Amino acid sequence: MLKTQIFLTLVLWAGSAMCNRYLYYSDANGWFKVHKIPLTWQGAFLRCLYEDAILASPFDTELQKAMLAAKQEAGIDSPIFIGTKVMFNSADYLSIEGVPIEDMPVTVPNTNGRKPEDCMSLVREGEVAFTSCTQWLPYICYKENSTQLKYNSDCGTFDQEYHYNSETDSCYKLHKQARDWRQAYGICLAEGGHLVIIDDDKEADVVVKILQGKPRDLNWELSHAGFFDWNKDLLTFRTIHGEKMESVYHKWHLNQPDNKGINIFGGILENGELDEEWSTREAYFVCEKNPKVEVFELPEDQYENEVSTKK
Ligand SMILES: *[C@@H]1O[C@H](CO)[C@@H](O)[C@H](O)[C@H]1NC(C)=O
């Protein structure tokens, strides 16, 4: 294909598929992703963290203006959580980056003698509110640009732990912090990928090889994989993308699956055989990512550059 053709395809594709992408705001010197679906403060904090970003705080005027613009563009009328809350002691309201609320270009609200709530939200320019951390509000994740940031152009992310595999034309990341299956599912999603779906024998070999790099400190060898029993009846194992197991790799370990309604989550053993897992057991896992999905908006020339250097 011609370079321009590839580029055009990518632009068209990116325009339609990536509303979900981090968008660049030069005034903010970084990227925003507006999350319209509300979460509690802790939920929002973690989601941003898993996206390798930070729950945004309006700690300078440019950043605040950009946040409000992004909020408006997303059609959000309600306040949004900001990454500023009580840190350990009453009256110490600081952003995640350590900026005190008193140093931000906002008016600290008067509570008329009442104890303020522990978290904060941004209402409009210069106006923040004390807000209960257990409320559910939209929020913005922020990733600051810096000269240290290195783009992983093989995999469409800044995350250097994603590695491209040419046999499967997919990117993979081994997570070496044990999580339960649901958390693993969410973390992969936040990274712009999904919990690994093993399509065939070839991909099983690739994943088994990657899993050889996992720490050896757990008493079980099962790692999470992207399938589960959708109806807890031992009959409804499908991938997390709804595919029938018969249409993907499905070499089960002897007599598995066997634990009806209890072990509903999918996993892969070190020899590549499949087994099931219960909801609270923490294990290592591999996330898979489509290398063509760009998690961050880049200047157009950069995309072109990446496409032309990929092969
Ligand atoms: C991020 O900063 C670097 C270095 O200052 C710059 O070259 C790059 O263009 C910036 N990224 C975007 C998307 O503007």
From TrEMBL:
Keyword Endoplasmic reticulum (UniProt): no
Residues making up the signal peptide according to the UniProt record: 1-19
PROSITE patterns, alphabetized: C_TYPE_LECTIN_2
Domain C-type lectin span(s) in chain numbering: 167-288
Organism: Spodoptera exigua (Beet armyworm)
Stated name of the protein: C-type lectin domain-containing protein
Domain of life: Eukaryota
InterPro entries attached to this UniProt entry: C-type_lectin-like (IPR001304), C-type_lectin-like/link_sf (IPR016186), C-type_lectin/snaclec_domain (IPR050111), CTDL_fold (IPR016187)
Entry keyword set: Signal
